[in-house]
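pasting for ref
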Amino acid sequence: MSDVIRIQPTAEQRQAFARWAVAQKPKVRTVGTNVFAVPAALFVEAPESVLVGSLVDGTRYVSPDEDAATAGTPELLGVATTDGFHEAVPGEALPEVPAEAYGPDSAPLPAPSEHSDSSEPAVEAPQGVFPCDGCDREFTSERGRDTHRRQKHAEA
């Protein structure tokens, strides 16, 4: 874990944040054009008014007040189509995507087979024994044998 938290204040709060940063002992330094390196111990003392909306280590800072206000908002579940918004119902198929949504060079995927088992690998590896020419070891794949051959039997 780093001892420094990178904060990129919003354009509106940049001057206020800079005033706070240079008032600290020692001063908070910049590490980029608009990014400040705030010691982790000092971050908790930063005024919330200059942090709201800022990017803190790449994530938007949300105040506890804003978080509490949005906590009761229901999650949006559904799909938007040309006919409008349709609520998603678990177990029902989504509507078809219109053909004009695809690019001119796109190709449709093959339909899933009813008899396919998702636990099976898509490409079967060749089965067999692959002996090494330089020693008496045997390998379950050509790749393993070839790697062994390059590492153990290569001429210097």
